[in-house]
Write a structure and sequence with these properties.
By secondary structure, the protein is mainly α. It has one domain. The chain has nine helices and no strands. α2 crosses α7 and α4 packs across α6.
Length: about 220
């Protein structure tokens, strides 16, 4: 949670700066309740994904998260009232097929016969993907009903995320464990800064949008 908290702080500062001095996106009329729900699912997805690394390696996490378009599109249709062209469904099928082939090849080379085994790490990745889909669905509803702009969304969601995580860090005592860890390993500060900056810059909405973008 402390790691995600650091990233959310950097995201909020960057989004606030961009909204104030770079992007003129007008007045935000989106209800705070939408942001609160969206921030919660966004946080749960990030925390579950990072927590999964205790049980699965990083390449497995990346492969699992590459399936993000599936829940995003499914829940976008069911909850976000979104409609996609057939070409996007084809792209999702190709992604699923590619991931399945890659995983099958990896298991075959390692001699694993228990190809259907699911552990805690895989369950956490599944929970993370589900939360990604819910986040995308709520964001689609926000854009459809209130024309919510990317700058407003990024700023408000990260503000709510900081509030949620700050309360959780204090309630669980992880904040003090995190500070003690940083004291023992001061080199982690540079890594935290670079990760947080990369996270913030990676959420910029480019003019040419990715067809599977569900975030900011």
């Amino acid at each position: 949670m402390a790691l995600v908290f650091s990233m959310c702080v950097a995201n909020y500062i960057y989004a606030w700066f961009m909204s104030k001095f770079v992007m003129d996106q007008g007045i935000d009329t989106t209800p705070s309740s939408y942001y609160a729900v969206c921030a919660l699912t966004y946080l749960l997805a990030m925390v579950a994904s990072n927590k999964a690394l205790l049980w699965v390696n990083y390449p497995t996490q990346v492969i699992g998260k590459s399936c993000k378009p599936i829940p995003v599109m499914v829940l976008g249709v069911l909850l976000g009232r979104k409609r996609y062209p057939l070409l996007k469904y084809l792209f999702v099928f190709l992604i699923v097929a590619g991931v399945a082939l890659f995983m099958y090849k990896d298991q075959k080379e390692s001699g694993s016969t228990d190809s259907l085994s699911i552990g805690i790490g895989e369950l956490l990745l599944l929970a993370s993907l589900t939360c990604d889909g819910l986040t995308g669905a709520v964001q689609e509803r926000m854009k459809a009903e209130h024309k919510t702009k990317s700058g407003h969304m990024m700023c408000a969601m990260n503000k709510w995320s900081i509030l949620y995580l700050g309360a959780a860090l204090m309630a669980t005592g992880e904040m003090w464990q995190f500070l003690a860890f940083v004291q023992r390993h001061s080199g982690i500060i540079w890594q935290l800064c670079t990760l947080s900056v990369a996270s913030a810059l990676g959420q910029v909405k480019l003019p040419v949008q990715n067809i599977f973008t569900s975030g900011f």
